[in-house]
Amino acid sequence: MSSHKLTSLQSQMKIEAGTVAHSLENFIKEHVTKLDREGAILGLSGGLDSAVVAALCQRAVGAGQTLALLMPEKDSQKEHLKDALDLARKLKIETKIIDIVPYLKQLGAYQLFELNRLPLPQPLKGALVNKAYRYYARKTGEPPFAASLLGFKDKEFSTYLSKGLAYCRLKHRVRMMLLYLYGELENRLVIGTANRTEHEIGFFVKHGCDDAVDVMPLLNLYKTQVIELAAYLKIPSRIINKNPSPDIIPGLIDEEAIGIPYAELDLILPALANQWPEHEIAEALKIGAEKISYVKNLVRKSAHMRQVYTP
Amino acid sequence: MSSHKLTSLQSQMKIEAGTVAHSLENFIKEHVTKLDREGAILGLSGGLDSAVVAALCQRAVGAGQTLALLMPEKDSQKEHLKDALDLARKLKIETKIIDIVPYLKQLGAYQLFELNRLPLPQPLKGALVNKAYRYYARKTGEPPFAASLLGFKDKEFSTYLSKGLAYCRLKHRVRMMLLYLYGELENRLVIGTANRTEHEIGFFVKHGCDDAVDVMPLLNLYKTQVIELAAYLKIPSRIINKNPSPDIIPGLIDEEAIGIPYAELDLILPALANQWPEHEIAEALKIGAEKISYVKNLVRKSAHMRQVYTP
């Protein structure tokens, strides 16, 4: 039975990329019209999701009406900026590069992250972040990302972690502000790049550039489905094949930060959405039950990031 | 019949302030606990709504656990800062004054607003803003606020207006960013101050400090009900009696900007919520039908500000 269930889940996850692309283009076009805008604006990071959204916008409203903001800062990897620029050139969409370092400096952001006090090269910084990340996970039983979804009350780590988090989150909130600034000056709709996987587990910055937008075309697609869509849209394989990373702090890639590979997440999440009991999911996917509880816990703890509570 | 309807509407609007205050305190306390926070943070402007929220936080989590950020800039009126400080002192809550001018300067904000190029005193600037505001309303048939809810396509005014709007909105987005920065560093819940009236008509900055928060305790209360609550909470009469203003651009108060007094809005909106036909509302409230359509239009045009669209 369980292998039958797995097969049905896998077939449920299949998308007809051409149809999906067409309907998402319509979705973007409709909302640009409905909200009386004259074009689209998005943040282009060099990663997969924003590459797909850029291609969809270009098809929806035209290359001339699509503006991509590239907003690197000290911790951004150069290769991502290059990939973003190459893609924009290929799509013939407009770009504006805005170095956000001055804004972050003004906010005192770089002083929040202890490792910035030392004159370390980025790779070494990355290795140290990674070590500290794993150390925390071993000591406390959950990775910092999972702990960060609610408030930190752990006295031993809280100062470092709160500062590190505030450091990361400022970056995405500055980016959101700039997207709206240029969006408003040029009457463009702000197009978000969040996918369903990261949205459901809270792997985004609350009220940051991957959350506070006008529309979210990819929100119904899990990460692995976005990869399928990317292939259909002929996104360069360099972008499709790179290891997804928030590119927000040196050394941390998505799957390391989350603690579970997307391939597993994208079966666990739809199985949970189907309301399968945890033990059946574990059996069907042949993974430990503790992983299912962990994912369920991420969904529960991040609920506040998907809504503002009112009485 | 219509006078009976009016009476029933008025009685429906009555609140038992003590009961409401108590339940909102519980709401705040519960969410601080539920989200594992150790206190509350809010932006205190010197206006009515944030004063009420400050008092509720103080009662909910204690004065020592309530931090109020005061974030003035060039266009902020001095008296509002003074009122905010006086209130904080009375409530014995912590305050931090953050001059947001350097952040706005870095973003080029002050250059966005044409009147800033001239060395005019604030009152004169205010008078000119007001004149321009009314001129636009007369020329186009709707005040700039109503036009601003969707994109500007009016070529004659769009550059000035888009810049003016981007100017105003940057301020509230910078404030949001700072509220989250300090909230995250000190593990506090970000408490919003939006009321139902302004939320329903879109009189707020999308993803700004009156929108992008963790909880919104006042969201079920119309402005006039917040005034009742303020009296119960012994908010100083200076704050209760001042003319509500966004304090975001010289010379503009809420009722002038919106085009309808709160006393009328707070009957029209609940009547619309009760699904009364427009002509019955007009008859019962003895106001022109065009006012009802105008309010209905604000609600419709601002729908995108209360949700992020997904496919």
Write up this protein.
The structure is a homodimer of 311-residue chains. Chain A has 311 residues and is mainly alpha-helical. The first copy, chain A, has a single domain, classed as 3-Layer(aba) Sandwich (Rossmann fold), CATH 3.40.50.620. Helix content of chain A is 56%, strand content 5%. The first copy, chain A, has a four-stranded parallel sheet with strand order 3-2-1-4, sandwiched between helices. The N and C termini of chain A lie far apart (44 Å). The interface between A and B is large, with 51 and 52 residues.
Mind sketching the topology for me?
2 copies of one chain form a homodimer.
Chain A: H1 2-13, H2 17-34, E1 39-43, H3 48-61, E2 66-70, H4 78-91, E3 94-97, H5 101-106, H6 122-140, H7 144-148, H8 158-185, E4 188-190, H9 196-201, H10 223-232, H11 237-241, H12 254-258, H13 262-273, H14 278-285, H15 289-301
Parallel strand pairs in A: 1-2, 1-4, 2-3
Helix pairs in contact in A: 1-14, 2-3, 3-4, 3-10, 14-15
Q: Roughly what is the average pLDDT of chain A, rounded to an integer? A: 95
The helix/strand order of chain A is HHEHEHEHHHHEHHHHHHH
Distance between the terminal alpha carbons of chain A, to the nearest Å?
A: 44 Å
β-strand percent of chain A reads 5-15%
The low-pLDDT segments of chain A are none
What percent of residues of chain A adopt helix (DSSP H or I)?
55-70%
* Biggest β-sheet description of chain A: 4 strands, parallel
Sheet/helix structural class of chain A: mainly alpha
Question: What is the CATH-assigned architecture of chain A?
Answer: 3-Layer(aba) Sandwich
Number of strands of chain A: 4
Question: Could you say which overall geometry of chain A the principal axes of the C-alpha atoms support?
Answer: globular
